[in-house]
Each structure stands twice: as C-alpha cells, then as structure tokens.
Amino acid sequence: MTLLNTLHKLKTKKIRVGRGIGSGKGKTSGRGVKGQKSRSGVAIKSFEGGQMPLYRRLPKRGFNPINKANVAVINLGDLQRLIDIKNISTDVKINIETFKKTKFFRKSIDKFKVLSNGDFNSKINIEADYCSKTAKDKIEKAGGQITVKNQSK
Question: How far apart are CA 77 and CA 83, in angstroms?
Fold first, then answer.
C-alpha cells in the first residue's frame, strides 16, 4: 500500500444530514424538534446557558470618564450677589475653599470656572481653575485681579 492510499483511508467521510431515516441523520437532521435552535440561520448570541453573560458581568464604562473632575461654574452676577449680602469678603483672596465654607459649592467639587454672566463692580482677588476671557476682562475692569491655575495656551 502506498502513502497516498493510507492518507485517503484516514479521511473521515462527511455526514450528509437530511437524506432519509436510514442514514441516521434524517428527518430533523440531528437538531431535535422545534424551537429556535432547530431552525436554520438562527444563533443565540452571547447566550451562555443561563450563566450570567460576559457583557453583563463586566463593568459599564462607555463614554463616562473614570477620573472626571467635578467642575462647578460661578457667574460674576452670582459672585457680586454673594459679596453684596456679605457672604464673601472682598479683602481676602477668594478660592474654592471660600465657596465651600459658605456652602455655595458642595464638598465634592474639585475645580471651578468663572463665567461673565451678570453685572460685576467689586474689586476682588480671586483664584480660579478656569476663567472665560470676558469674565477676566470684567474683573480687571472693576479693578480686581484673577489668577487662573489651569491656564491652557
């Protein structure tokens, strides 16, 4: 016997399903009866036999950043109102701790941004993480000074 003949005999014959009851794989073609799995072209994707599927076991992250900074926004009009009702003093440097002490910001706030909405006419010294250009102009026009920590060029 040659090598070619032995290789030919090692090949297993393909089982032809659905070719009559005498073949052993006739009628339902080894799929059982009825139900989704017996139909052609149907697969139960990510079904793990009742076990919690992988996509539900893993934590959901999506587009929510994990280390997102809690940034609060304060308008100059609100800042002026706090100064007018004497919650904030103009002779000390105003920063995030000042707002947390007056309970204007929650304790969970990490940074804050100054925006220019409202009228402003107090001479203050403020230290902020972010600031809009118009807010900076309004503060400097009123004779105040603003220091921006995270100034991006």
Answer: 10
Q: Which helix (H) or strand (E) holds 9?
A: helix 3-10
Region label for 114, one of left (φ > 0), alpha (ψ between -120 and 50) or beta (otherwise): beta
pTM over 0.90: no
Max Cα–Cα distance, the chain, nearest Å: 107
- CA 105/CA 99 separation, integer angstroms: 6
Q: Would 1 be classed as within a structural domain?
A: yes
The CATH number that applies at residue 140 is 3.100.10.10
Question: Is the model's pLDDT at 109 over the cut of 80?
Answer: yes
Q: How far is CA 105 from CA 72, 102, 131, in A?
A: 7, 8, 17
| Statement to judge: residues 51 and 86 lie in one domain | no
DSSP 30-98: TS-SSSGGGSTT---TT--TTSPPHHHHSPP-TT--TT---EEEEEHHHHHHHHHTTSS-SSS-B-HHH
Domain region containing 38 = 1-58
Counting the structural domains of the chain, the total is 2
